[in-house]
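Hello,

I think I submitted the zinc ion job twice by accident. Can you confirm which output corresponds to this input? Input:
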Amino acid sequence: MTTETHGHPIFSWPPKPREIATVLFGFPGLLWPWPALYLAVAVLQWWAIGASVFEGDVSPIAFVELFAVNLLALVTFVLAFHYFLYVRRTQGLKYKYSRQWPEKHNRRFIYANELLEGVFLSCGSAVGVWTVYTFALLWMYHNQMLPGAGTDTNLFWSAVTFLLFPFWANVHFYFTHRWLHGRVLGKFHRVHHKAKDISPWSGLSMHPVEHLIYFSAVPIFVLIVPTHPVLMIYFMVASALGPTTLHHGFAAIKLGKGRTMMTDHYHHYLHHQFGQANFGATNLVPLDLWLKTDYQTMQQRKSKAPVEGLETT
Ligand SMILES: [Zn+2]
Ligand SMILES: [Zn+2]
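Support: Only one job matched these inputs. Its output is below.
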């Protein structure tokens, strides 16, 4: 089903220029289509409300406006996947990892409904944490408390931070995710793992504590790396919308006229199926391979000796 490899061409040695170019400019790649779309959303948000918060408007109305534009972006994006893939089912089960559709009645979920729980947690807690972090960081920019406070940060450096963030986000996700599978935080992460057969609304279906941890990748990054405020908003948008592209449950999306777009996230699908393996969101930084927590290695180890804790939490 999957075409995903365990390594990543970016880290191949000797370097493979053609593969690296594909990672950068491919469809999908590090620039197109999702990052370009997220950047467009970030620019619109900056224009709608971000710039005035950056200039010092930290009134409750400005916060509500920021919450509203975040909510609008999230609902529009997730609904597009949900409507075409799960309501109209435009491609049926073609490329779907599981033959199942989300459960409609199961008491494990809030309102006994998987979809409603995903909508509730995404639109409430996730958008709330996303908004609080963005609002607080814009206030810090205004008060010259961040290294990228000047909006005149040079273009070359902005391009570097634009490309650097996905690598950092991968590393942050891997280690915080392993932490979330530990004894202390496991009870919070269990909320995200209720969904075995993932769907678009599963992406941000997390406990509020996990939202605080998950979105912290952006504040940590901009506290250390000088970042243009519009790029900070872009990183937040990418963090908020990205989980949908990781959880919609299809290896590829049919675009019409026989064209398909690979959207492979089999790596994370297996994580939802089997629990203690594949902690990385993607293999952009193949930490699962390097730290031997990828599903294949875990299975090989399991076949030699029982692996404790390989539970489907
Ligand atoms: Zn997990
Ligand atoms: Zn997940």
